[in-house]
Design a protein that fits this description.
Blueprint (H helix, E strand, L loop, with lengths): L2 E6 L7 E10 L2 E12 L3 E2 L4 E2 L4 H22 L8 H18 L14 E8 L5 H6 L3 E2 L2 E10 L2 H14 L5 E4 L7 H9 L6 E4 L21 H12 L3 E7 L9 H11 L7 H11 L5 H13 L5 H25 L2 H6 L1 H14 L1 H17 L8 H10 L2 H14 L7 H15 L2 H10 L3 H14 L2 E2 L4 E4 L10 E9 L20 H5 L19 H5 L3 H6 L18 H7 L18 H6 L17 H13 L6 H6 L10 E2 L16 E2 L9 H8 L24 H7 L3 H14 L2
Parallel strand pairs: 6-8, 6-10, 8-9, 10-11, 15-16
Antiparallel strand pairs: 1-2, 2-3, 4-5, 7-8, 11-14, 12-14, 13-14
Helix pairs in contact: 1-2, 8-9, 8-18, 9-10, 9-16, 9-17, 10-12, 10-16, 12-15, 15-16, 26-27
C-alpha cells in the first residue's frame, strides 16, 4: 500500500516554499514538484492543506486534492498493479504540466508563415460548438476563419465554449447566452460582434421550430426560432450562411416546411435595390389599383427598416389601411350602424390590435414561457392556452376582420374596395416573396417582364434546394444524415453541395475510432490513456481488426505515407496551426468552479462508464452476442432479462455507427457489454480528445427541459469534420 502526501522544500528569497508530492511504497520513494509555492506558515502539514482561507488558498487546496486523487487512483484503483518509478512520474507529471500551463501567461509572436486572409464567422444555436470547431480546422490557400461570437440559451453550452475557446485556445470569441426570441437579442448580439463585418453565419434552429402558420397551434418555446434566425441573417447579411437540420425536415408537412424555408430565404432582400423596385411600382399607379400598389410599396419599404423603425413602419401601414376603411365606412353603413354594429367594431378594433403587434408578440412570448415553465402540456389547460394564443396572432385577427366584412351587407359598388382592404392586411403579414406574388397578379405582361430583372437583383441570397450530407462521407465514423441549407449572397460563387472527402471504401470504422479507448470496464473512469493490445483482446480476429486501422489525412482520405489513424488524429488534434491549444485540457463542474480555480487537469477527459447493475450487464452481453436487439429478444425473455426499451444499437467494429443521439444507454459497445462514454460518443462525432465537455455528465426527468449535460452536448452537435468540409468549400469559393 502506497502513502501519498505533500511536503515543503526550502523557501526562496520571497519566503515561498515549493510544495512537493511524495509517494512511499515498499521502501521506494518518488518526489515530484507540484509547481505551486506557499509561505511555510500558511501550510498545515498535518491536514496537508493551505491555511488562511482566500480564493488563492482554495484553488491551491483543490489542486493538491486533485493530485492526491489522481495518484491514489493510479496506484490503488487501476487495472495495472506493477509500475516503474518512471511510469508513475510520467503520468503524474502530465497532470502537473497541465496545471502549470493554465497558470502561466504567454505572449506569443505570430509567425510570418501564419499570416493569411481571415474570414469571420458566428455560430448560432451553437450547443457544444461542432460548427465552430470544424470552421477552426479549415484552411484553404492560406485563407482561414476568425471566430467572432456564438450564442445559445444554455449555461453549460456557454461554459463549454468559454473553457474551450477563451481559456484553452486563447481566442477572443464572445458568447451570448440568451433566448434568440427575446426583443433585445439582436442588439445584444450586435454588441458582442462590435464593428466587425460577418462573412459567414452558421447554426441549426431545432426542427421543432419549423411550422406552417395556422396549421400547427402547439405554441411551445421553439415555435419561432427559424424566423428569428433569419432576422439575424437579414441584419448581418453575410456572404454565406449555413443552416443544418435533421433529414426529416424535407418531408415534414408533406414537404411544405422545406418549401417554406426556401421561400423565406428567397424573401431576404438587398435593401440597396428597394428604391429601384419602389420607383417601378409608383410608375404603375396611373392605370392600376393605386391603393393596393401603395400598400405593396409600404410593405416593401419595411424590408429596409431596422429594429424600432420596423414597428413604426408596421403601425403606419395599418393606419394607412385603417384610413381607407374610415373613408369607406359611410358608404357601406349608416351613422348609427357605424357606431354600434359589432362587425364594424370588430374591423375597427382589429386595426388597433394589428397596430400594436409588437406588444401582443411580447405578451404571447411571455405566456409561452410561463406555459413551458409550468409544464402545461397534455392536460386540461392546454386547449385554453392554445385558444388564447391563437386568437391574438395577426393571422387570426385578420381572419376575424375578413369574417366581419363578409357578414356586412356591402353594396356591390364597394365590394371590391372591401376585398382590397383584406388583401392589404394579408400583404401586411406576408413574406416578401408572397408580396411579390400579389404584385405580379395585378401587373400586365409587359410590367411582369420589367419586374423580372428587378426581382432577380433584389433577392440577396441564391438557394435552389437543400443538400443532404452523410457525415460518414467526410471522415466521420457515423452514418449521420443531415440537411444543409446553404445561402449564397448574390455577389458570391454559388455552392449547391459539399463534395465528399472520402470514398465509400475509405470510410472510418467504429473500431478505428474507438479501439484505443477500449481499456475501461463497467463503472470505471479513466484520466489517462492506457496501451491497448489488439492481439490479446481479439485473439483469432486480431489480424482482421488491425486491417481496419488506416493511415489518413485529417479529412479522412487515405494517406499511407504520412497519414495518421483516426484515433491518432483525435489525440493530436485537428485544429490548424494558428489555433493550436495554448494550454492542456481542463474540466470544471460549473462556472463557480471555473471562477474559484477548481479545475481538473487530466490527460484524458469525459471517459467514464455508467454503473450498470448485473442484470443490465447480462442483458447487454446477450444482445452483443446476438449482434442485434431484435434477434436477442427470445433469449432475453427466456432469461427473464427482457426490457421495455424500444431499441439498443449494437456497434459493429467494421462499420460506421448509426446516428449518435443524446442517451448513451441506446448504444452497446462492440467489444464490451456496456454503454458508451462521453469521450467515445465524441470520437464517433469526430471531436478531438482535447475538446472537453464541461458540467454534468448526464441528467434525467424534467431536468432535460432546462439542462444540457455532456451527453446531450455531444449528441446534438454538428460533427466537426462535417463542419470542416463545409468551411473548406466556402473558403474555396468565398470572395
Amino acid at each position: 500500500m502506497a502513502t501519498i502526501n505533500f511536503y515543503l522544500d526550502k523557501p526562496d528569497k520571497k519566503g515561498l516554499a515549493p510544495i512537493h508530492l511524495r509517494i512511499n511504497c515498499n521502501g521506494s520513494q518518488i518526489k515530484l514538484a507540484t509547481g505551486q509555492k506557499i509561505a511555510t506558515e500558511n501550510f498545515d502539514k498535518k491536514n496537508q492543506k493551505a491555511l488562511n482561507y482566500s480564493a488563492e488558498t482554495a484553488e491551491i487546496n483543490h489542486y493538491l486534492n486533485f493530485l492526491k486523487e489522481r495518484a491514489d487512483e493510479l496506484l490503488h484503483h487501476s487495472n495495472k498493479k506493477t509500475f516503474s518509478q518512471e511510469e508513475i512520474k510520467e503520468k503524474l507529471t502530465q497532470h502537473i504540466e497541465g496545471y502549470k500551463e493554465n497558470h502561466s501567461v504567454n505572449i506569443v509572436k505570430e509567425q510570418v508563415s501564419l499570416y493569411g486572409k481571415p474570414f469571420t464567422f458566428v455560430d448560432l444555436f451553437a450547443g457544444a460548438g461542432g460548427f465552430s470547431e470544424g470552421f477552426l480546422q479549415a484552411e484553404v490557400n492560406n485563407k482561414f476563419f476568425d471566430f467572432i461570437a456564438a450564442s445559445d440559451i444554455n449555461e453549460n453550452c456557454e461554459l463549454t465554449h468559454v473553457v474551450r475557446y477563451n481559456h484553452q485556445l486563447g481566442l477572443n470569441a464572445e458568447f451570448l447566452r440568451q433566448d434568440i426570441t427575446e426583443p433585445d437579442f439582436l442588439d445584444n448580439f450586435l454588441q458582442k460582434i462590435g464593428d466587425k463585418k460577418i462573412d459567414v453565419v452558421c447554426g441549426g434552429p431545432p426542427c421543432q421550430s419549423f411550422s406552417l402558420a395556422g396549421k400547427r397551434k402547439k405554441f411551445d418555446k421553439k415555435d419561432d426560432l427559424f424566423s428569428h434566425y433569419l432576422e439575424v441573417i437579414k441584419i448581418l447579411q453575410p456572404k454565406y450562411f449555413v443552416m443544418e437540420n435533421v433529414k426529416g425536415i424535407l418531408t415534414k408537412e408533406q414537404g411544405k416546411i422545406k418549401d417554406l424555408i426556401i421561400r423565406e430565404i428567397n424573401s431576404i432582400v438587398d435593401t440597396n435595390e428597394i428604391p429601384v423596385l419602389v420607383s417601378f411600382i409608383r410608375k404603375m399607379k396611373s392605370d392600376k389599383n393605386s391603393f393596393l400598389l401603395e400598400c405593396i410599396v409600404k410593405r416593401v419599404e419595411i424590408e429596409k427598416l431596422r429594429d424600432a423603425e420596423i414597428e413604426t413602419g408596421r403601425e403606419e401601414f395599418i393606419r394607412f389601411v385603417d384610413s381607407r376603411f374610415k373613408q369607406l365606412t359611410p358608404k357601406i353603413a349608416d351613422y348609427k350602424t357605424s357606431k354600434t354594429d359589432s362587425r364594424i367594431n370588430t374591423i375597427r378594433h382589429g386595426f388597433n390590435i394589428l397596430a400594436r403587434t409588437k406588444e401582443w408578440e411580447k405578451l404571447k412570448r411571455d405566456i409561452i414561457k410561463e406555459k413551458d415553465y409550468c409544464n402545461v402540456d397534455g392536460d386540461a389547460f392546454v386547449e385554453q392556452f392554445t385558444s388564447f394564443l391563437t386568437h391574438i396572432s395577426s393571422d387570426s385577427i385578420i381572419e376575424q376582420i375578413e369574417n366581419a366584412f363578409n357578414e356586412l351587407k356591402v353594396p356591390a359598388t364597394y365590394k371590391k374596395d372591401c376585398k382590397d382592404i383584406i388583401t392589404a392586411l394579408k400583404i401586411y403579414t406576408a413574406s416578401f416573396d408572397e408580396t411579390v406574388e400579389t404584385l405580379l397578379s395585378i401587373s400586365s405582361a409587359k410590367e411582369r417582364e420589367g419586374l423580372k430583372g428587378i426581382l432577380e437583383s433584389i433577392r440577396l441570397y441564391k438557394i435552389e434546394k437543400p443538400f443532404v450530407a452523410n457525415a460518414s462521407n467526410y471522415g466521420v465514423p457515423q452514418n449521420r444524415e443531415r440537411v444543409l441549407f446553404i445561402g449564397c449572397r448574390k455577389d458570391q460563387k454559388f455552392i449547391s453541395e459539399i463534395p465528399s472527402t472520402v470514398k465509400p471504401e475509405e470510410k472510418v470504422t467504429v473500431f478505428e475510432a474507438l479501439y484505443d479507448l477500449d481499456f475501461i470496464g463497467n463503472n470505471q473512469e479513466a484520466h489517462h490513456y492506457e496501451l491497448v493490445d489488439i492481439s490479446k483482446q481479439f485473439n483469432g480476429t486480431a489480424k482482421k481488426m488491425m486491417s481496419l486501422l488506416k493511415k489518413r489525412a485529417i479529412d479522412g482520405k487515405e494517406n499511407s505515407k504520412s497519414g495518421k489513424s483516426f484515433a491518432e488524429w483525435s489525440k493530436e488534434g485537428r485544429l490548424i496551426e494558428r489555433y493550436k491549444p495554448q494550454t492542456k485540457p481542463i474540466y470544471v463542474r460549473n462556472f463557480e468552479g471555473l471562477q474559484k480555480g477548481e479545475k481538473y487537469f487530466d490527460i484524458l477527459n469525459n471517459h467514464k462508464t455508467s454503473n450498470q447493475n448485473d442484470d443490465v450487464v447480462k442483458r447487454l452481453k446477450i444482445i452483443l452476442e446476438n449482434g442485434d436487439y431484435k434477434k436477442a429478444q427470445c433469449e432475453l425473455e427466456e432469461c427473464g432479462l427482457s426490457s421495455n426499451k424500444r431499441n439498443y444499437n449494437v456497434l459493429k467494429p467494421d462499420e460506421q455507427s448509426s446516428t449518435i443521439m443524446t442517451i448513451p444507454d441506446d448504444y452497446v459497445h462492440y467489444n464490451s457489454p456496456r454503454a458508451l462514454t462521453v469521450r467515445e460518443m465524441a470520437r464517433l462525432q469526430s471531436f478531438d480528445d482535447s475538446f472537453v465537455f464541461q458540467g454534468k455528465r448526464s441528467t434525467g426527468g424534467n431536468n432535460r427541459k432546462t439542462e444540457v449535460p455532456q451527453y446531450t452536448l455531444v449528441g446534438n452537435a454538428v460533427p466537426p469534420l462535417l463542419a470542416r468540409a463545409v468551411a473548406s468549400e466556402i473558403l474555396k469559393n468565398i470572395k
